[in-house]
Amino acid sequence: MEQQTPLLEVKNFSVSFKQYGKGLKQNVTQVISNFTLDLYPGEIMAIVGASGSGKSLLAHAILGILPSNAYINGSIKYKGEELTQKDKEQLRGKEISLIPQSVGYLDPLMKTGKQIDSPLKSVKSTVKSIMSRFHMADGVKNKYPFQLSGGMARRVLIGTALTSGAHLIIADEPTPGLHKSMVDETLSTLKELAGNGRGVLMITHDIDLAFIIADKIAVFNKGRSVEVVDAKAFEASPDYVKHPYSKALWHALPQNGFHSIRSKDYGDDIDAIQDAQGGEA
Ligand SMILES: Nc1ncnc2c1ncn2[C@@H]1O[C@H](COP(=O)(O)OP(=O)(O)OP(=O)(O)O)[C@@H](O)[C@H]1O
Ligand code: NI
């Protein structure tokens, strides 16, 4: 069988931050280490991990929107081609679309309808259809982001992914603050995008959401992927996963006993890996 080219290939990828500590001492902190994943067209991969484990930074690295004190290493390929910062800037919002964790990413000066609207002929969803799908009154299209509630702003962000025409959609915690019916609608939207041959990377700390729609789950702990597993098999049994952190995540679910989990008990700490002396020699 011919092997398909992955839509997204991340290999041996790391992100570090340089920060100035006391005096002129410069600390380098590695927040993502040796991360590897392949995402194929039509696939939904969930990245599941605790708060602060580096999930959003991974999304921002793929989009090329890391803060200026961040340093990256390793490879990110899109459709088989290594992505440069310039490529990322060109693909962002077009081929690669982010549903950001914070609703603050909406353009504050642009009416919501305009933000959802797509200039692409190939895009079937209209502003009107998205407003009705996500239960927003037609008048919402004429509002500015500051006039929206948090949940409504979130629905607008999800709408933009539907009209972007992007081949790769990265949804960074797309559902907090949404009512159950809107959570379901969001998940079915992501499923629909994958059904149309797009690749979806869904970042979440809620493993139950991952079980509902993901094909594969990458378990993320302290900036490392501890393993990438089949979602259905993982949902069925903790015996299927190898890493103790993945097993602990399974046992922490309410339906599996609600056992508390302390992420620091698993894996090595990736704290300051290197202290460099700053200033003049
Ligand atoms: N500009 C920065 N300088 C230094 N450290 C940073 C910077 N931005 C983020 N970090 C650190 O990187 C780590 C990972 O952050 P990230 O936002 O990716 O976590 P996350 O997994 O998305 O968490 P959450 O589930 O809360 O959204 C955090 O420990 C954070 O403190
Ligand atoms: Ni995050």
UniProtKB/TrEMBL annotation:
Catalytic reaction equation(s): Ni(2+)(out) + ATP + H2O = Ni(2+)(in) + ADP + phosphate + H(+)
Entry keyword set: ATP-binding, Cell membrane, Ion transport, Membrane, Nickel, Nickel transport, Nucleotide-binding, Translocase, Transport
GO molecular-function terms, A-Z: ATP binding
Compartment(s) of residence: Cell membrane
Pfam entry (one): ABC_tran
The enzyme's E.C. designation: 7.2.2.11
Subunit structure: The complex is composed of two ATP-binding proteins (NikD and NikE), two transmembrane proteins (NikB and NikC) and a solute-binding protein (NikA).
Record family assignment: Belongs to the ABC transporter superfamily.
Domain ABC transporter: 10-247
InterPro entries: AAA+_ATPase (IPR003593), ABC_Ni/Peptide_Import (IPR050388), ABC_transporter-like_ATP-bd (IPR003439), ABC_transporter-like_CS (IPR017871), P-loop_NTPase (IPR027417)
Top-level taxon: Bacteria
Organism (species): Cohnella suwonensis
Membrane topology: Peripheral membrane protein
Name under which the protein is recorded: Nickel import system ATP-binding protein NikD
Coiled-coil regions listed: none
The keyword Aminoacyl-tRNA synthetase is annotated on this UniProt entry: no
